[in-house]
Amino acid sequence: MSTLHAHTRQFDARALREEFPILQRLVRGGKPLIYLDSAATSQKPAAVIQALEDFYRTTNANIHRGVYELSEAATLAYDQARAKVARLINAPDPRECIFVRNTTEAINLVAQSWGRANLGPGDIVVLSLLEHHSNIVPWQLIARERGAELRYIDIDESGRLLLEQLDEYLASGRVKLVSVTHVSNALGTITPVAEIVERAHAAGAVVLVDGAQSVPHLPVDVQALGVDFYAFSGHKMLGPMGIGVLYGRRELLEAMPPFLGGGDMIRTVTLEESTWADLPAKFEAGTPSVADAVALGVAVDYLQRLSMPAIRQHEMELVRYALARLDEIPGVTLYGPVGEDRSGVVSFTLGDVHPHDIAGILDSEGIAIRAGHHCAQPLMRRLGVVATARASVYLYNTEEDIDRLVDALLIVRQLFNIED
Amino acid sequence: MSDLYREHILDHYRNPRNYGTLEPHDRSFEDSNPLCGDRVRIDLRLDNGTIADIAFSGRGCAISQASASILTEMVKGQSLDFVKALTADDLLDELGIPISPARRKCALLSLKVLKAAAYGLNEWPE
Ligand SMILES: Cc1ncc(COP(=O)(O)O)c(C=O)c1O
After folding, report:
1. pLDDT surpasses 70 at A175
2. A85 FRET partner, CA 20 to 30 A, in A232, A302, A340, B63?
3. Separation in Å, CA of A145 to nearest CA in chain B
4. For residues A73 and A90, what is the distance between their CA atoms, to the nearest angstrom?
């Protein structure tokens, strides 16, 4: 395993690329793949892919249930992965990190368990216009069931949250929960989570943060942020699909009823009723994705070895470069804030070319970007666009990738006769 | 260069044929592709079972709009039976570009709308 990068001061994305098998392949009839869709899902380093195979070749057994060697080894590997995840986000106790499938499931867990127990008629849940559908729909479902109401924090023209509006909502005294994203997947806005938490807590509200786009890209410290719940997906942070994490403060998780019922989450079961296992098992009914969790642990090792501040620094430099280069192209409109509160997401439009056409032409050049509403229809409506094109970078992207993107956008301009 | 965005596709996109609405019309239908928001409306004027006049309007990606423009040229003056017999492949052949599975609905939205307008069958064409 390479430990080179931990010791080199220079962040060498070009060398890192070599460790991602998929980035070596050709697409669309022999073009090198330029992958600029890591906000949708990240690619995986060989070490993570190997970890999946190793688990099934050497350690596979169901956890918790066996007294034999393999089961003990699998259980240990699963627990170690949890400890790694907890360390990454500085959770006080690994038992506060529940393994789930993804961010979506983590948010639904809180909505269905905490929400059903704590929301009632007239209570308010505050969301924001930056939210992904996965941090909107679960609240619509539980709010309808419990008679609670939803409010949305609006954004300014650059895509920053208008916190005065949060204060107005909090002043009603009816806000039970504030659930906002840490980083917008559509605009790249980094929201002031610590400040939101401070205001929400002062008003007696609980705070959930959607960390799907932050944990992979920024140093995250759940204690420093003061959040009550924090949700993220393994597949966006070099890990496998099918494993994600819900961090929750222990006292909240302990007071919550279970989400799913079944094996592994109980202490005793009689014909009439059951009592619940301790954390985290109480929220992990059934056989979990052990191999995926173990491989996520390896992904966390990989990120830690590079260091999150170094990854963040690399992405900031790349985005600064991308914004400058894209801005030179006549007809390009850029969305989202310009400044330190911006992640590695670049949303744009080009003249009146439909974003799907942009993505289609880029695809024929071997460049993978996303076009559409980015699962944030309320945000698109607020921006007054049907869709945008979105390029998003990660630790393996380089300035050459951005140059290729710009070259291909010039082809789009030419094909569609965009006026200067 | 892109196989998908051949000159004739871009020409139909920039200069759509039979663009607009027909007032009055005998049949009209509008639908959208929920995945990417492409929208197409088709109006028909009928005369004795043939399409005497046709117009389309809408917005969306070049593939969806060029396909609608090309389709109106294919069926203008033809019988409703002709429309009924039209298959997805007939339209895709006429477009003459390699349509990937991801873009298939963009290319076929107009045919779906036409069939719904002509005889009420609102399904993705085979
Ligand atoms: C901000 C944000 N929240 C939530 C999600 C949902 O993540 P998942 O599909 O892994 O549940 C995403 C992923 O696209 C996202 O970008």
Report:
1. yes
2. A340
3. 27
4. 25
Judging contacts by C-beta atoms under 8 Å, the chain A residues touching residue B14 are 417
Strand partners, B40: B31, B58
- The rounded distance, in Å, linking the Cα atoms of A358 and A297 is 37
Below-70 pLDDT ranges, chain B = 1-2
Q: Return the sign of the alpha-carbon dihedral for residues A408, A412, A417, B3.
A: positive
Residue range A233-260: mean pLDDT, rounded: 97
Taking CB atoms and an 8 Å limit, are B4 and A364 in contact across chains?
Answer: yes
| A97 catalytic per annotation | no
For residue A355, the distance in angstroms to the closest alpha carbon of chain B comes to: 8
B14 CB within 8 Å of a chain A CB: yes
Predicted local confidence at residue A2, as pLDDT? 44
Share of chain A above pLDDT 90, in %: 93
Answer whether A360 sits within 8 Å of B14, measured CB to CB: no
Phi-psi sector, B98: left (phi>0), alpha (psi -120 to 50), beta: beta
Residue A372 near chain B (CB below 8 Å) = yes
For A354, which of B10, B14, B61 is closest by C-beta distance? Answer: B61
Condensed to tens digits (0 to 9), the pLDDT of residues B37-71 reads 789 999 999 999 999 999 999 999 999 999 999 99
pTM to 2 decimal places: 0.93
Q: What is the complex's ipTM, to 2 decimals?
A: 0.88
Answer whether A356 sits within 8 Å of B106, measured CB to CB.
yes
Active-site residue identified among A39, A375, A379, A395: A375
Instruction: Judge contact between A300 and A85, C-beta under 8 A.
Output: yes
Estimate to the nearest angstrom the gap between the alpha carbon of A395 and the chain centroid: 15
B14/A411 Cβ within 8 A: no
Residue A277 pLDDT exceeds 70: yes
pLDDT tens column, A31-56? 999 999 999 999 999 999 999 999 99
In order of their start, the domains of chain B are 2-118 (3.90.1010.10)
Q: A420 falls in which pLDDT band (50, 70, 90)?
A: low
Domain with CATH 3.40.640.10 in chain A: 49-304
CA of A3 to the centre of ligand 1 (A): 31
Report the CATH superfamily, name and number, of domain A3-32+307-415: Aspartate Aminotransferase, domain 1 (3.90.1150.10)
3-state helix, strand, coil in chain A (%, to 5): 45, 20, 40
- For A19, phi then psi, to 5°, come to -90, 0
Ligand 1: distance of its center to the CA of A138 in Å? 13
CATH number of A49-304: 3.40.640.10
